[in-house]
Amino acid sequence: MNKLLIDAINFSNEKAVLFKFESRSKLAAYSMGIYCTLIELSESFSKLVESQCYSGSLSVYRTFLENYVDLQNLVNNEHYVNQLDYDNCRQKKHNLEAAQNDNPYLKSIKKYAIDELPKLDIEIAELKGNSDFKVLSTIKGKFQLAGMDKEYSGLYPLLSAESHCSLEAIFSRHFEKCTESDEVKISINNKDNLPDYDFYLITMTRYLIFSGQLISDLLDGQQRIDFLEKREEIALSVK
Questions:
Q1: What is the pLDDT of residues 151-184, one digit of tens each?
Q2: What is the dihedral of CA 196, 201, 203, 208, to 10 degrees?
Q3: 3-class SS at 53?
Q4: Which of 59, 109, 113, 233 has its CA 20 to 30 A from that of 155?
């Protein structure tokens, strides 16, 4: 199934550079940026699986899914750009506040804190008060807005458990009970895990191609037929 994803990645790379868009449009720029990120994350995931480096691969998948949700929301609601601006401002504020408190990793930006923090507070307040779009404070809200409640309650917790190295993830990944005795063997990058990844590979392939279709919808149908044909080809190949 990794070959299927690799083919989708190559297809997406070829098509992405052909899209024409207005770079001064936040909606178009943010959407194209996320789409390019999805292509890169797909490639990272594919290479990790191909090299059988499974630990960390589902963290990449989780990041892919979060970006996919953002793209869905951008295409469905042009005012979702306010959400991304809001998230960006909050992250900048967090960093500057940490720098102001002498965080050793953020020394280089401490000098900007006094001037920039008040500006960020104003921008955050304006975004929260914008009547066009009520900003969301949780990832759950973003999934719900995208109509992906089932993915949030079913798939996302599995990815999060792997990303945060839950006890269940650690034990299933590194301990294997021998069927012929009561001994427990240590396992690192278990090569038998590949069949378990078919679901993730197929699903990511579908998400990636549909992401291209979403961009096509946003940009007045550019290359739409190509993406529809590719989706049909993939659907037939995984039956």
A1: 999 999 999 998 888 887 787 778 777 777 778 8
A2: 160
A3: coil
A4: 233
CA distance 225 to 7: 17
Structure tokens at 119: 């500006």
The pLDDT of residue 195 is above 80 = no
For residue 153, what is the DSSP state? I
What pTM was computed for the model?
0.91
Query: Are the beta carbons of 209 and 234 closer than 8 angstroms?
Result: yes
Q: Give Cα separations from 225 to 4, 39, 90, 217 (angstroms).
A: 20, 19, 39, 11
Say yes or no to pLDDT of 47 above 70. Answer: yes
Angle at 50 between CA 49 and CA 52, to 5 degrees: 60
Nearest to 235 by CA among 202, 208, 211, 213: 202
For 91-145, the pLDDT digits (tens) are 999 999 999 999 999 999 999 999 999 999 999 999 999 999 999 999 999 999 9
